[in-house]
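Structure tokens please, single chain.
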Amino acid sequence: MDKMPRWADVFLIPLISLLLAAGLSALVILAIGENPWAAVKMMVSGALGSTYGWGYTLYYTTNFIFTGLAVAVAYHARLFNIGGEGQAMLGGLGVALACLYLPLPHWLLALPVAAIGAALFGAAWALIPAYLQAKRGSHIVITTIMFNFIAAGLLNYLLVNLLRPVGSMDPATDKFLEGTHLPTLHDLLAPIGIEFSKAAPANVTFVVALLACLAVWLLLWRTRLGYEIRAFGHSEPAAVYAGINPVKITMIAMLISGGLAGLMAVNNVMGEAERLVLNAVEGAGFIGIAVALMGRNHPFGVLIAALLFGFLYQGGAELALWTSIPRELIVVIQALVILFTGALDHMVRMPLERIFLSLRKGA
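Here you go.
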């Protein structure tokens, strides 16, 4: 028998963790001489008070959905993939090669081609760590960390020495071809009479991210492969006894995870910058770890958690722009959210379990 209801594990524990993080963040803001309530109002208005703010919030949310799903899929196979940063970098390379060198006359053709390129390059970057884990016993955490740094170095070399246009000093590719331009939410919503900011970077990739959530849910809970991944994650000896090949599941789960992380590049490389630049991922691969943990590794939970972190990113940028609160404090707030929803999960869970157990005994 579970120690607490499922709804308490999914909703109540994250909610209490968020409230604790918010309370501690308010104390930090007070300590630097600012008004916490005014800071909250500024963040809400900056992230959700206009279609411009919503556009940036949904743009960041899209990035975090992909990296959160990547971590979640691997986690179900008892694999802690923290290489989403590097896999998203290489996904950007796949997008750039497709958009620069393939004749793609319209975004309806360019989007699936670039998505395939991003997923293939992201999966390829997860392939070696997956093989080392499955066949050599090398820990996936160590290898994926190393591959993040290798990806950064490789991309730096390619942009500076091979992909940089002649005469340009900027370590970035040339602008993508005109036909690869993705429609923004303004372009998508204007025909049905909904006004949305033209300046916001949110684009059709947000719809792709929502479809990815649905696809991952169907994969994990409605397919035989998903059952094998979850069974392997719950108990490797039991899975082996049932005829599940651990090498196969490890490889497949990591390839899917890497492909999902690579897909993030469609949003930031193709949808926003429209060229490949250094540091395009901007830490979204690591934020995906917190998103997956907070979302309990469920696609719907990942969507909600990604929206929260998108709000924190955009609201924090507005806060740093219009107040004297430094941008670094927003990183502190994000760290507190990660701390309470991840590392200190049991601090909230254990008292709640005792409460629910006592309620059952008294019933």
